[in-house]
Amino acid sequence: MARVFNFSAGPAMLPQVVIERAREEMLDWQGSGMSVMEMSHRGKEFMSIAAKAEADLRELMGIPSNYKVLFLQGGASSQFAMVPMNLLPGKGRADYINTGSWSKKAIAEAKRYGQVNLAAETSMTCPAQDALQLSADAAYVHYTPNETIQGVEFPYVPETGDIPLVADMSSTILSRPIDVSRFGVIYAGAQKNIGPAGLTVVIVREDLIGECLEGTPSMFQYKTHVDADSMYNTPPTYAWYLSGLVFDWLKNDIGGLDKMAEINERKAKKLYDAVDGSGFYANPVEPSCRSWMNVPFTLANADLDATFLEEAGKQRLTTLKGHRSVGGMRASIYNAMPEEGVDALVAFMADFEKRHG
């Protein structure tokens, strides 16, 4: 059976070469006589896998030496609590920017542990830098660079002065180069641009590690995982291994994040041009804040939504239904979505409009 073009927002498609390599190594990883799934996380075989994955990620993102890289469980949603638990002590107050569904969830969780100042709140756009109402005494400023449901993406990194900037990069990490030194904490669930579900990557500056709110469980303390090299408990070893294969693919097959950014920008432009050049499709997001990764769009006649999805599926274009809170369609075009998939979707959209418009 031919593989489909999977436009899911997550878990998302993986590079085919990564899946093929994992298949080759499934029963016997490099002569070890066992699968990665069977390895002790403290054995020399897996330790070498873990070390290479971290080294490749550091190289790809240019992560400075004064940052720790953690490979954790719990998804990005667990970081909604871990961030305030680890960063609020001594301040008790944080700034949050609300641009969509995931921002709202992070804000709701943070309110359990301290005071939240809403620095800005927008819908289908993102606030300008001079519109941010930042607190002088905030422990940190939190934002979501890319909202997967609304398809809203910041075209800039907020300036926060000496206050640490925290970013939920689940849906945009590794899509382009970033300056990690501008952030205090970066966290990302793996299932969009890194690897399979079950792993969360956290990049945290060393000076933000150590102090926690009273009563914080050991598993929710960054220091616990830093001291144990992410091996305090049994980590999600197979997801870590697959993520390492993705990092290797980005480095050696794609040629780094500069090249990945060129591809992603080109893919997004093709899809937005198809939407904007049509009288049949529409995108609700302010053009300057449109996401490269998640492209929502509506049909002129919502009664045709089911027909669109059915016909797209027959063309091997799957998982295009928009989030239930927004409706319409959503095409998630993360790193692993080949340009061929976007071309196929654009061609189908044009044909569908011709027949139903």
TrEMBL record:
Record's keyword annotation contains Cytoplasm: yes
Pathway listed: Amino-acid biosynthesis; L-serine biosynthesis; L-serine from 3-phospho-D-glycerate: step 2/3; Cofactor biosynthesis; pyridoxine 5'-phosphate biosynthesis; pyridoxine 5'-phosphate from D-erythrose 4-phosphate: step 3/5
Keyword list, A-Z: Amino-acid biosynthesis, Aminotransferase, Cytoplasm, Pyridoxal phosphate, Pyridoxine biosynthesis, Serine biosynthesis, Transferase
Xref: InterPro entries: Aminotrans_V_dom, Aminotrans_V_PyrdxlP_BS, Pser_aminoTfrase, PyrdxlP-dep_Trfase, PyrdxlP-dep_Trfase_major, PyrdxlP-dep_Trfase_small
Cofactor annotation comment: Binds 1 pyridoxal phosphate per subunit.
Coiled coil: none
Chief place of localization: cytoplasm
Chain sites annotated for binding L-glutamate: 42
CDD domains, A to Z: PSAT_like (cd00611)
Enzyme Commission identifier(s): 2.6.1.52
Biological processes per GO annotation: L-serine biosynthetic process; pyridoxine biosynthetic process
Ranges of residues in domain Aminotransferase class V: 4-345
Subcellular location: Cytoplasm
Catalytic activities: O-phospho-L-serine + 2-oxoglutarate = 3-phosphooxypyruvate + L-glutamate; 4-(phosphooxy)-L-threonine + 2-oxoglutarate = (R)-3-hydroxy-2-oxo-4-phosphooxybutanoate + L-glutamate
Enzyme class: transferase
Binding site for pyridoxal 5'-phosphate: 76-77, 102, 148, 168, 191, 233-234
The organism's place on the tree of life at top rank: Bacteria
UniProt function note: Catalyzes the reversible conversion of 3-phosphohydroxypyruvate to phosphoserine and of 3-hydroxy-2-oxo-4-phosphonooxybutanoate to phosphohydroxythreonine.
Family: Belongs to the class-V pyridoxal-phosphate-dependent aminotransferase family. SerC subfamily.
Protein name: Phosphoserine aminotransferase
Biological classification of the source: Bacteria, Pseudomonadati, Pseudomonadota, Gammaproteobacteria, Thiohalomonadales
